[in-house]
Amino acid sequence: MKKLILIDGNSIAYRAFFALPLLNNDKGVYTNAVYGFTTMLLKIIEEEKPTHMLVAFDAGKTTFRHQTYSEYKGGRQKTPPELSEQFPLVRELLDAFNIARYEADNYEADDIIGTLAKQAAGKDWEVKIFSGDKDLLQLVSERITVALTKKGITQVDYYDQALLDEKYGITAEQIIDMKGLMGDSSDNIPGVPGIGEKTALKLLKEFGTVEKVLSSIDQISGKKMKERLEEHKEQALMSKELATIYTEVPYEKELEELRFGDYDSKQVVALLKELDFSSLLAKFDYDDPQEEEKELAALDYETVSQIEERHLTSPAALIVEVLQENYHQAEIEGIAISNKEGHFFVPTEAALQSELFRKWAKDATAKKWVFDAKRTVVVLGWRDLLLEGIDFDVQMASYLLDPSLSSHEITDVARRKGIEDVQEDELVYGKGAKLKVPEQDKLGLHLARKAHALYQLKPLLEEELQKNEQEKLYRELEMPLSVILGHMETTGVKVDTEQLKAMGEDLEGRLQELEQTIHQLAGVAFNINSPKQLGEILFEKLGLPPIKKTKTGYSTSADVLEKLAPQHEIVEHILHYRQLGKLSSTYIEGLLKVTRKETGKVHTRFNQALTQTGRLSSTDPNLQNIPIRLEEGRKIRKAFVPSEQGWKIVAADYSQIELRVLAHISKDDRLIEAFRKDMDIHTKTAMDVFHVEKEEVTANMRRSAKAVNFGIVYGISDYGLSQSLGITRKEAASFIERYFASYPKVKEYMDTIIEEGREKGYVSTLLQRRRYLPDLTSRNFNKRSFAERTAMNTPIQGTAADIIKKAMIDMAAALDDKKLKTRMLLQVHDELIFEVPEAELDEVMKLVPDVMEQAMELAVPLKADVSFGDTWYDAK
DNA sequence: TACGACACGC
DNA sequence: GACGTACGTGTCGTAC
Fold first, then answer.
1. How far is the CA of A791 from the C1' of C10 (A)?
2. Does residue A315 have a cis peptide bond before it, meaning omega lies within 30 degrees of 0?
3. In this structure, are residues A307 and A350 in contact, taking their beta carbons and an 8 Å threshold?
4. CA of A494 and C1' of C11: distance in angstroms?
5. pLDDT digits over A401-459, tens only?
6. At what angle do helices A744-760 and A729-742 cross, to 10 degrees?
7. Can you cite a GO biological process for this protein (predicted)?
8. In angstroms, how far is C10 C1' from A865 CA?
9. A561 Cβ within 7 A of any nucleic strand B atom
10. Nucleotides of B under 7 A from a protein CB
């Protein structure tokens, strides 16, 4: 059956505008009404699956109703300009969806809707009307439902005849009579003064219509009421007329032309992106077949079988295509170069076996522009091809310009710069199990397009970096670091797999015992790893009190279990089972899975363009979260060993780097003094916060002080602090207050940085790394608070990240300078790990902390502790 | 295949 | 006064 959806455009846009905070996109255009409208539209499309659709708008200021009553809609607030400017966007949106829209001089949206609804219902179509205006209820019939917004924008009540009867006890036709009696202040329809909804309904239930009410005035009880009705007879009749929707609006086209569904989703996607509606984009079905078919502009490119000088100019954009996410020892699918001479696709072997190409690659003066320098260097490195002269990395630039962007993929970076003619990798290669390389001309074209995009993007991004004063951060920190990280990854870390296996077997045995004990105590066998089953056992079978709930059921997290431990013996065994299970699956089996058989090494990948703060992350395996806190887990570190006989592992970590950074940025005298004297900072904080002498600081006071310091560094809230200390939120808040009282300039810094962030839209680190925080002006308390904590925290954590990155560059240079064989292996946020030949041990043990401490000059000294051992475990 | 719960590090 | 609270990655179970 055909289903027509009619939307009251003005009404929904108004609703959305007032229901949502005044959002704007990155171009400063207000978008809250369009956003709400779009949300509603997507919901309607998804839930109603309409075959036909139309959105009606009010046209001009005057309509035929003004002839009846010149004061019609008088006294209305002017439409706020922030809303009016959004109407063209709403129209654009509808055009992108190819949804019919209509407005007619002299008529209101209601009249258009009424007209079309009647026509469609007459043809037995199903009709649904969406609006916020109760007037439309008069249209309700067997075929016509009216969806009225109630709360927010997407919550609606669907009025059919039954609901109308239930809510008002009158029929659809009587809605106009009701308006005639009670009026409508929003449309300035007078009605009868003194009669409101209650009285109007009572009268109508008794007499049926306005006319009948008026002709039966003498039967009405109440002197006042009689008088009023008598006096405002005319006005009541006129009001009824005004409220009556006119259903004969001239509409030339056929209903059939309102057909919905034939739209170009590319256009919709483009518009949603332009509006910054990324959350809606996710909901919108991308895999629309029409999208994939879209033809890109043609690109002239050459497939090269023999490399010549003209292909290898400087500068040139270079694509080395690898499909595997993990690029270590990965296949190269093809190579593309774009330069002033043109665009070239070079089959992998044709390039790698070319002497000319190899020479060009290692020529540091031949400038290469790439996408993901580290990936490119490492991939070629595994093929014994040295790549030097990397002059620009588009991915890195995009990341530095705005780390919050969800994608720094070449296609997305290009699109943001208005370059549309690059295909998504996923469209070319497919994904998951269906991933495959297309025939050569398709591949060649795709890679040539990417290279071409790179070539165009470089100057655009470079200019932006300069504008942001991030050129130095980019050229002197991140770019040199990416090459160093590439070397570290390629070097890899040796793993003692025998040791791991032995630990694994031991763990397996103990896990089995624990499992038995737990099943016995539960009285039934179940999967301990399943939070669902575990919850049922603990909270239903054993009757323990559920402390916390999750979306899906009872929470069984460690902090909950710890509280339950005294009540039942089983709980401690479960905690122990979890602990060992984690070690076994993640750290033993997980690590063994990614250890290369031939070399016994793991090659992690550091993601240098991901975190919002400037830290690195590590994957496959993640070597930044190897256990240390509990002895049991810490033993895993015994499996990380030097890759050569007689070498040692050296580990050096910064002591309190974030708090030192805080002392530097805030210039707080007490904090600076504490670090200059190299005091135990948590004890010092306890002394200051609790106003006691050093000797009087109890273990508990120090623990609290440590948690507060932790909170300052990680930007947690009073709630977070209360959780970590097991105290109330009030107490936590008062702790924080006392901290600020002790370190007034820290407080000052916190206030200033929020203010600065609000004004500029972003906060920065010492080396000009940026983080944009639009939510600092959010009206949503949560969002705003979170943004404020982020504003306070990011410059601290980010500057610490800047410092260790700088230390890594200096360290690599020092090792090179001194011709040392020592290799830098890992970075764990405030820590660097090396493998060192015995003969270099003494020198390196001094060099590493020296270099780390000199990496940057702050108002307080930096301090690094260093240690060595036969394994990572022993380097403590 | 996608997502939530959980747990590890800084 | 409510809101739902550091950032990452990996594993498992469970739903689709």
1. 29
2. yes
3. yes
4. 23
5. 999 887 888 999 998 898 988 988 888 888 766 778 899 999 999 999 999 999 999 99
6. 100
7. DNA-templated DNA replication
8. 30
9. yes
10. 1-2, 4-10
Residue with tokens 């690659």: A361
Query: Which residue has the closest alpha carbon to B9 C1'?
Result: A625
Q: What is the pTM of this model?
A: 0.71
pLDDT of residue A282: 65
Nearest residue to C13, CA vs C1'? A530
Interior/surface letters A670-709, b for 16+ CB within 10 angstroms, e for the rest = bbbebbeeeeebbbbbbbbbbeeeeeebeeebbebbbbbb
| pLDDT tens per residue, range A725-751 | 888 888 888 888 999 999 999 999 999
Q: How far is CA A389 from CA A19, A314, A812, in A?
A: 54, 10, 18
Task: Quote the pLDDT of residue A27.
Answer: 64
Q: Of 1.20.1060.10, 3.90.1150.10, 1.10.8.640, 3.40.50.2000, which CATH number belongs to A494-602+611-641?
A: 1.20.1060.10
Question: In Å, what is the separation between the CA of A792 and the C1' of C5?
Answer: 15
- Return the structure tokens found at A624: 């930044």
Per CATH, the number for A302-492 is 3.30.420.10
In angstroms, what CA-CA distances link A445 with A106, A154, A295, A410, A733?
Answer: 55, 44, 13, 15, 60
- Counting every residue written for chain A, the total comes to 876
CA–CA gap between residue A17 and residue A36 (Å, rounded): 7
Asked whether residue A25 carries a pLDDT value surpassing 80, the answer given is no
Residue A562 neighbours by CB under 8 Å, 6+ apart: A575
Give the model's confidence band at A283: pLDDT under 50 very low, under 70 low, under 90 confident, else very high.
Answer: low
> Could you tell me the fold of the domain covering A658-799?
DNA polymerase; domain 1 (1.10.150)
